[in-house]
Design a protein that fits this description.
By secondary structure, the chain is α/β, with parallel strands linked by helices. Helices cover 42% and strands 24% of the residues. Helix 1 links the parallel strand 1 and strand 2. The protein binds guanosine-5'-triphosphate and magnesium ion.
């Protein structure tokens, strides 16, 4: 694959911030001095996100945009992976709640590693306490069941070598459980995974229904645990 950086941002009803934040990301990437592109993948958006995304793609040669009707960021992740032009694939959230320093840090780490986990636990986080506690309990159980040592499985602020995860694109969870699956599969294949601190400031209400998320992710985790017992 061509050396360079694909940044993937899943977007759901991001009309108020999408254009401005996409431009901010592009400006930041231009300063890194590596070939790059941004893929914006919307599912289920019911506001003007699809129009704004399409307009950004028209305006910039290095922006790809797609919209699919059904919700689920995992669906968008899989599709973006197949569209990616470059050998390094980094994920961000549309609200840019992560410090952009993560991008060059991830890029450097991916020279040696198959995946890099941007970790709020190792860095700093300004998020509502109940969300920190909910994430931490889930991370603790994930690590106990899957024998993994990491401290962050959120979808944003993760980096991968595109070639390491492309074979899994059609098998990943269509909703929010795909980071755990990717990390688990890379480890199982003997891949190298690094974890680096990330700064996160996220006070915006989540796009997800957190109660539904809770049940969903625990269900998926037990499913992966059962499968892991046979691996
Ligand atoms: N493509 C797509 N993107 C989505 C969907 N739901 C949310 N997103 C995007 O996923 C990103 C993360 O959404 P947030 O609401 O910030 O998630 P969060 O609850 O802060 O996430 P964590 O705290 O990391 O679990 C944002 O860029 C959203 O626009 C979806 O169904 N499809
Ligand atoms: Mg968020």
């Amino acid at each position: 694959m061509t050396p360079g950086l694909t940044v993937f941002i899943p977007v759901y009803n991001e009309e108020p911030i999408l254009a401005q934040n996409a431009e901010r990301v592009l400006e930041h990437l231009a300063r890194l001095g590596v070939p790059h592109e941004v893929i914006l993948g919307s599912n289920g958006s019911t506001d003007r996100t699809p129009e704004i995304g399409a307009e950004l793609a028209r305006k910039h040669d290095n922006v790809q945009f797609f919209h699919v009707p059904e919700r689920g960021p995992g669906r968008a992740f899989a599709r973006a992976l197949k569209l990616a032009r470059y050998d390094k694939f980094v994920t961000l959230d549309a609200d840019l709640s992560f410090d952009m320093a993560f991008v060059p840090d991830a890029l450097a780490s991916l020279e040696q590693n198959d995946a890099v986990i941007g970790s709020k636990g190792l860095g700093t986080q300004k998020r509502p306490l109940f969300r920190i506690i909910a994430s931490d309990s889930f991370i603790w159980l994930t690590n106990l069941l899957l024998h993994m040592p990491y401290r962050d499985y959120a979808i944003g602020a993760k980096g991968y070598r595109t070639a390491a995860i492309l074979p899994h694109a059609d098998k990943v969870d269509v909703h929010t459980f795909y980071t755990q699956e990717m990390v688990y599969q890379i480890r199982r294949a003997g891949g190298r995974i690094a974890e680096i601190p990330v700064k996160c400031e996220d006070r915006r209400p989540s796009r997800f229904n957190l109660l539904h998320e809770g049940f969903y992710r625990y269900g998926k985790l037990f499913g992966l645990w059962f499968r892991s017992l046979r691996d």
